[in-house]
Amino acid sequence: YLVGVGRADCTGPVAQVPLMGYANPDQVGGGLLSRLYSRAFIVADPEGSERVVFVSADIGMVSQRVRLEVLQQLRSKYGELYRPDNVILSGTHTHSGPGGYFQYSLLWISSKGLVRPALSAIVNGVVKSIDIAHENMKRGRLFINRGTVENSQINRSPFSYLKNPESERSRYSSNTDKEMLVLKMVDEDGHELGLISWFAVHPVSMNNSNHLVNSDNVGYASYLFEREKNAGMLPGEGSFVAAFASSNLGDVSPNTRGPFCANTGEPCDNPQSACPVGGAAMCMAKGPGNDMFESTRIIGQNIYLKAKELYEEASQEVTGALSSAHQWVNMSDVSVELNATHTVKTCKPALGHSFAAGTIDGVGAFNFTQGSVEGDPFWDQIRDQLLGEPSNETKACHKPKPILFNTGEMTWPHPWHPDIVDVQIAAIGSLAILAVPGEFTTMSGRRLREAVKSEFDSHGTPGMNVVIAGLCNVYTHYITTYEEYQAQRYEAASTIYGPHTLSAYIQLYRGLAKAIALNATQELSRGPEPPLFNMTNVTLLPSLSAENAPAAKTFGDVLEEVRQEYREREVAEVTFVGANPRNSAENATEHNFLTVERYSNVSSSWRVVLNDASWDTRFYWSKGSRGQSKVTVEWHIPAGAEPGVYRLRYFGHYKKRVSLLRTVTVPFEGASSAFQITAP
Question: Do residue 441 and residue 319 come from a single domain?
Answer without folding.
Answer: yes
